[in-house]
Write a structure and sequence with these properties.
Layout (H helix, E strand, L loop, with lengths): L9 H10 L4 E7 L12 E6 L5 H9 L17 E6 L3 E5 L10 H17 L3 E9 L6 H13 L3 E6 L6 H15 L10 E2 L8 H15 L2
Parallel strand pairs: 2-4, 2-5, 5-6, 6-7
Antiparallel strand pairs: 1-3, 3-4
Helix pairs in contact: 1-6
Length: about 220
């Protein structure tokens, strides 16, 4: 579901469907900056707080329930996981930042890895920053957005768990997020509402990625 004036066209929705209809394979894991793969082709990253639902959304996009590991325990994703989507691009599932049920030093190391990756990856086309719709933007989210603005890395906000709020609550949440993004230079203006549980917004997210790849000539 898109939260902007422009809905994706049927052609773009179909392009997004086809984009994720083919092979999707795990290709690389990087627990530290020195272990990153060579910069080849276009990369798109998913970032967000621990337990925001990144891995579940990766699985929903690709239609594969076990491509990315999911868990109800925050902190399950402990490295940068790279997935090749057909021959078009690489999707990067990042460790959740912030709270996780592991020692503080490890969380701090993940956070450093995330920020270093985001600043130094020239083939990174966009970061989709996942926000739990039940909680909205938190201080730790805005710290990441500050870093993305400073590094001039394009990013777009994706609300997860969109089935958890009533319509009135969601409208209020969305209005607050749009206001917060208004003065952020690297933020893409369209906000996406998704739910991995019932496929809400997943076709629109696929279409968004397809449009981005078209713009990049990938």
């Amino acid at each position: 579901m898109t939260l902007a004036a422009d809905e994706p066209t049927p052609e773009l929705l179909e392009a997004g469907r086809l984009l994720f209809a083919g092979a999707a394979d795990f290709t690389w894991a990087a627990p530290e900056l020195g272990a990153l793969p060579p910069m080849e082709g276009v990369e798109i990253a998913f970032a967000g707080r621990s337990n925001v639902g990144k891995s579940s959304l990766v699985n929903a996009l690709t239609g594969r329930n076990t491509l990315a590991r999911t868990s109800h325990t925050p902190g399950r994703t402990q490295q940068l996981n790279f997935f090749r989507i057909g021959e078009r691009f690489t999707l990067v599932d990042m460790p959740g930042y912030g709270y996780a049920q592991v020692e503080k030093a490890k969380v701090e190391a993940w956070t450093r890895l995330i920020h270093a990756y985001l600043k130094g990856r020239s083939n990174l086309a966009r970061v989709y920053v996942l926000i739990d719709s039940r909680h909205g933007l938190k201080e730790i989210d805005t710290a990441l957005l500050d870093g993305l603005d400073k590094a001039a890395v394009s990013y777009q906000l994706v609300l997860t768990k969109g089935d958890a709020l009533k319509k009135s609550e969601m409208e209020k949440r969305i209005a607050g997020i749009h206001a917060a993004l208004a003065k952020r230079p690297a933020a893409y203006p369209e906000v996406l509402l998704t739910s991995s549980r019932d496929d809400l917004g997943v076709p629109e997210l696929r279409a968004s990625i397809a449009r981005l790849l078209q713009e990049r000539g990938a």
